[in-house]
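cache lookup: miss for this entity combination. No prior model stored, computing from scratch. Input as submitted by user K.M.:
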Amino acid sequence: MNFFRKYSNQITGYIFITPAVLLISLFGIFPVFFGFYMSFHKWKVFKGRFLGFENYQRILGDISSFWIFVSGLLLLIFSYWIWSEYKDKIKNKIPLSIFSLLILFLGLFLINSSWAKMVSLGDDDFLYSIIYTFYYSFLTITSEVGFGLIIAFALYQKLKGKQFFQNILLLPYITPAVMGAAVFFIIFGKAENSLLNELIGLFGFDPQLWLFDKRPITEVLFGIKINGFLAGPSLALTSAIIYGIWSYTGYYAIILLAGLSIIPTDLYEAAKAEGASRWQTFIKITIPLLMPIIFFLLLTGFINTFQAFNHIYVMQTSSAGDTMDVVTVEIFDHFWDRVKFGYAAAEGVVLFILLNVLAISQFIFFRKRLNYD
Amino acid sequence: MKKFILFLTIIFSYLFSIPVFAAGHITAEAIENANPIGQEINFWVQYSDSRLEAMQARAERFEKGYGIKVNVIYKGHYGKVQSAMMTSAGTSDIGDVARGYGNAAADMYFIGASIDQTPFANSPKWGVTQADIDDWGANWTVGFSPYFDGNPKLLHEVGKSIEVVYYNNDWLNELGLKEPETPAEFAQAACAATNSVYSKRIGDTASLGYEIDTDASNFAAWVFAHGGDVFDYENGQYTFNSSEAIAAMEFIQGMSSLGCAQVTRGKYSDQQYLGLGSVMFALGSTSGITYFQKAIEEGYNGNWQVSKVPHTTSNPVLNLYGGGLIMGDTGNIDRMVATYQWMKFISNTNNSAVWSTESGYGFVRQSSANHPLIVEKRNSLPQYNRSLGLIQYGKGEPSVPGYYSVRGEVEKAYAAIINGEDINSTLDNLNDEANAILADAIAQ
């Protein structure tokens, strides 16, 4: 009895958190561990023999190359960290700059060499899907946050019908992805009389194949043929990116607008009294004070877009080849169509590791801008 | 914290150790003693709309006569039916019976999702008679899979369809051309159509000779028509880069480069534009005959026809689909026997004939040929009559594990070739990929 009396507060606390712990363990933590477990087995609906790292070997070609690749990414982050951490603490910045640059180049070298090895030995469909995912994620998120910021800033001004515009902005976000994507599939049709081709025709442009065109965007826009990463996404994937931007920009704008509304107005008044221009106010006050929200949107946005699936799946065409096969589509294909559960789980684990590196990098990049107290 | 980790370890260990559902043992004795009356079974299908309604009506009649309830459930296209069956394998939630092709049945059988139907067919009490088997003829034997030891019967045929050319007969007459017999004549007609405007065209969409659905069956149809095959059963390997496949793709790419053929603009748009009179040719299964009929009647509303795929071989070789019924392993022998009664019911002489007229599929019982409904349909829809006559030239696509995944790769390669990619290297890559998928699918 003494025991219960002595620890009654703690026991009560544990009782209260037990349902949450059970639910999170079962539906949050367990699937992650189970995914790891599956990835080490041949698993075609039923658990097969233990494979060890064989699935990873087939995906990555050479597992050590993958870790070198991850190390390269971490070195890029480290080079930035070391520069940003010490640039204001030491007088002579040249050695620091040289050191940071050396680390940066070493990171790039490791990424480049390990990637080439992985592509030559591993599952190039999956590895290229990481690049397509990066295109999708980077272009979507930067555009969404950028446009969202502009819209939020516009709505922050004294406008008539502000509430109406806010409601309109949320419409794409609440539209079911599959339905929206099906409509975009028609808009981005390759027929000469598709909606978008009719529209660009009004401005004198030739009809495009849109979702049916696997040429890189640089070739479509500028007619230059670039090989490799710098070629950019295909026109087909760009069309899906446009859908992504359409779908989420309004939502981001609403979040950023909420952020704008909590910035103290006396800061703007003081800046105005000091003669700051509107642009200076925006850059020196608005952006820094919005940074915690922008960081949150970038972090969650990157994670979400790395997991984007529904609309891309709906908008796929055979003419686009593999260029719309982002990581989630690849995983779905192996899990659902090829019934390779273990292999798909291993792909999921690779994605999980990369997302963690991404989250770390974002934290390092933004850590000093998150708090202005 | 240590206690928490210990707690999680116990929970996870327990969950990892849960055994998967173990199927009941299917023996002749268990089958004989089974009681199918009062059972409720699920039939997973790929068709919707009127076909689904027709099948549901049939299920109601079956329930009244046999006391077995059948839920006919639309699960999406064939691939989705297969995936649903495979991912629910080992559970009682699996479909009792599903529509699918031989390759899907092989995939399912490989992981224990589907079962050998032989013990049910052989049951004196619940099985089929020799007279029935004779009536099915080749449509019975095709359901066996020599790919596996013991030659299991994995598929119960219920319909036949073939890949044919649908075309605008009026437009062809306007151009002064006859029905193409060879690929060269087909290309000539396609280009003539592209460079003309059909007098009864609806709308102002530009004319096109041939709109290509880049589906793997379409690819196989052209390879067959050029005297080749996409799979070599003797070597157990795909042959997507054979000389016949290359010739077929050169023919297709040749038309495309002249602007006389192009990849389909969207799902069923070949059907839609053919109906509107702006596309001359489309390839499709005879099971879609009613959809083409509807599109044309609602469109230019003139004469149309189905024909064999133009060929370079002495006799036509057409891609034959032998979709059938695949039994899932629910582990409940009463349900399985009930399922088999349903399978027998929907493929009896009368229902085979009725289903053929409802769906456009060919019937699988010889005795259905003289059924009044078949006779009437033959007379009222000459295209249907002609399609039934073409079934004799049928040749099937591979019934091997993993073919569904291979189809996705074929689709991409086919589209790439039509859009101008190098034929030889594209087909070589496709062949390598397809054989890798096959090896992966059968690896233990």
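stored under new cache key. The domain at 27-160+322-392 of chain B is CATH 3.40.190.10 (D-Maltodextrin-Binding Protein; domain 2).
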